[in-house]
Amino acid sequence: MDPLGGLPDGITARLLAGVNGLEMHVLEVGRAGDPVLLLLHGFPELAYSWRKVMPALAGAGFRVVAPDQRGYGRTTGWDAGYDAELAAFSMPNLVRDQLALLHALRIPRVHAVIGHDFGSPVAACCALIRPDVFPRVVMMSSPFAGAPSWDPAPRDTVHDDLAALHPPRKHYQWYYATRPANHDMLRAPQGLHDFLRAYYHHKSADWPDNTPYELKGWTAGELAKLPTYYVMHRDETMAETVAPHMPSLAQVASCRWLPDAELATYASEYARTGFQGGLHWYRCQTGGGNAQELRLFSGRRIEVPSLFVAGAQDWGIHQVPGALRRMQGEACTDMRGVRLIEGAGHWVQQERPQAVTRALLDFLHETG
């Protein structure tokens, strides 16, 4: 197995067979016997996205484990076809993946599970469903508002209303659920490397218009205030959406949190796998599959100590209006705080790894 580029010294990689039907690629650092931290990445990232915080967490006395999740990177055993059976990518099965991984590693219980972006609701559901195995949880960049209610949801007209705006708009998650989305990004006109560069830049604190604030509600008028990487122009692909925000050569050269050599690791991995594995997650979300499964836990709250961490310049905090408040007031009974990291956008653990490490260690030490 070729090594990933840019991994700090001490981080090792291996493949584990028989993990809920997967051969799972895992990055690890730290000593056997130390309390375990399980780190779960989001989209479009990899276990590699934790490379900047893993050594410091290990240095503080933790064994750190970060898998490429189902649908990503060097983990295999999942179906990359658009017509794949989506149940494999449902939220309960993603939790099952983590339980199977811990079983394969002979780890009966972690010290904490930490998830970023789409890894955040996976981490939250781990703590919701199996608090005995996941006794602490950190959610990053994507607030968890709780399991869905059994009450029927009112008819959602927001997508029709977005399409009726001038100019017409569409929500990125529903675009990600479409058949062309994978090809649009994988075969981006500007090339995959430059697409990813523009995408990461657009959602980072390096893009000056990332100045988030709370929206008033799930309405077209409010959602249209989000940047176009969340609420796109109707007739544009994601590659076309981010292309005007491609950073200059000077900006790329000065980007310390994601140098071109490290971006090349993402580009080479996604060139090999495509994006469809991660996009299946969005299809489970937008198609109602996750809500159907998670209603089993309706009314149940996360009772273990919890923390939310995000970049202060991250619109992801507010992309679902009210979710941050519901997480604090309803979904979690032992919420220890919200830490917003200045100078970071959506890729917080890459943009400001030292500040994220401090926030994590403060929480881990406070909760024993």
Give an overview of the whole structure:
The protein has two domains: 12-151 and 289-366, Rossmann fold, CATH 3.40.50; 158-278, no CATH class. It has 16 helices and ten strands. It has helices at 54-59, 91-104, 119-129, 158-163, 172-176, 181-186, 192-202, 220-223, 238-242, 249-253, 260-273, 276-286, 289-294, 323-331, 348-351, 353-366; strands at residues 12-19, 22-29, 36-40, 63-67, 112-116, 137-140, 169-171, 231-233, 306-311, 335-341. The protein is globular and about 60 Å long. The model has no long low-confidence stretch (mean pLDDT 97).
Give the topology.
Elements lengths: L11 E8 L2 E8 L6 E5 L13 H6 L3 E5 L23 H14 L7 E5 L2 H11 L7 E4 L17 H6 L5 E3 H5 L4 H6 L5 H11 L17 H4 L7 E3 L4 H5 L6 H5 L6 H14 L2 H11 L2 H6 L11 E6 L11 H9 L3 E7 L6 H4 L1 H14 L2
Parallel strand pairs: 3-4, 3-5, 5-6, 6-9, 9-10
Antiparallel strand pairs: 1-2, 2-4, 7-8
Helix pairs in contact: 2-3, 7-11
Summarize the entry for a quick read.
This protein is an alpha/beta fold. It is 36% helix and 15% strand.
Strand order of the largest sheet: 1-2-4-3-5-6-9-10
Mind telling me the CATH class of the largest domain? Alpha Beta
Q: Into how many domains do the coordinates divide?
A: 2
- Average predicted local confidence, pLDDT: 97
Number of helices: 16
CATH topology of the largest domain: Rossmann fold
Question: Helix proportion of residues, in percent?
Answer: 25-40%
The 3D shape can be described as globular
CATH architecture term of the largest domain: 3-Layer(aba) Sandwich
Low-confidence stretches: none
User: Structural class of the helices, strands and pairings?
Assistant: alpha/beta
- How many beta-strand elements? 10
CATH homologous superfamily title of the largest domain: Alpha/Beta hydrolase fold, catalytic domain
